[in-house]
Design a protein that fits this description.
Elements lengths: L1 H42 L3 H5 L15 H12 L3 H18 E12 L2 E11 L7 H17 L1 H11 L1 H25 L3 E13 L2 E14 L1
Helix pairs in contact: 3-4, 4-7, 5-7, 6-7
């Protein structure tokens, strides 16, 4: 009888351990899916979608998750018209899309109420973009445009004021400006690095709470 009881205890313990292990695996998989969803959203240029996978306090160490809010604030302050706004939003979306070329889940680790996911990323090195040549080019382009359109711009200024003149000017040169900026961003050097994402339970769902670049290697 004692042997039978011991056998049942051992079986119950084994089942419990197996169940716990399976649950941990399921939780790790769920957290991994969240990280993949976040990175996929960035690759699609969908920053609003990426935010669905993060906590409210999350800060992106790459600095691309706040690009849309920055552009929105900038456009509100400039108020240059619908065409200019659309061109700037297209630029921001395409710059975000190009930020991460590819990624691969490298490792996962579960500790109490946190799951860490390590990801190998191949992306664009936006931090080291040299804007000098583009700034010089845009300055020259703007000066030439102003000289060629001086009479028309002055007429708008006299009839409608400075704001109207600036809006007309930016409507004309905005497309060229954002095309050049997009070319600069999407043509940036590639960079290989690792990011560690730390996830916690938020309303019974795994969410990315923090992330950091843990290793960088220039390609």
């Amino acid at each position: 009888m004692k042997k039978l009881v011991s056998l049942f205890v051992a079986m119950a313990f084994a089942i419990g351990v197996a169940g716990c292990g399976n649950n941990n695996e399921a939780q790790i998989q769920a957290a991994t899916d969240v990280v993949s969803g976040y990175l996929d959203a960035i690759q699609n240029g969908n920053l609003d979608g990426a935010e669905e996978y993060t906590t409210d306090s999350y800060i992106d160490p790459l600095g691309i998750d706040n690009m849309d809010s920055y552009m929105e604030s900038l456009l509100d302050s400039l108020d240059m018209g619908d065409t200019f706004d659309q061109e700037s939003n297209d630029f921001a979306t395409n710059a975000v899309k190009a930020a991460i070329t590819s990624y691969e889940i490298n490792d996962t680790k579960m500790e109490e109420d946190t799951i860490s996911v390590l990801v190998d990323i191949d992306g664009k090195d936006y931090e080291n973009i040299d804007f000098t040549a583009m700034e010089s080019e845009l300055t020259t382009y703007t000066q030439n445009y102003a000289n060629e359109n001086l009479n028309r711009l002055m007429q708008i200024y006299n009839d409608q004021g400075e704001d109207a003149m600036m809006e007309a000017m930016m409507q004309d040169i905005g497309g060229y400006m954002f095309d050049r900026m997009e070319t600069l961003f999407t043509g940036a050097e590639q960079k290989k690095y690792q990011m560690r994402f730390d996830l916690v339970q938020d309303e019974n769902e795994w969410k990315i709470k923090a992330a950091e670049i843990s290793e960088e290697a220039q390609s």
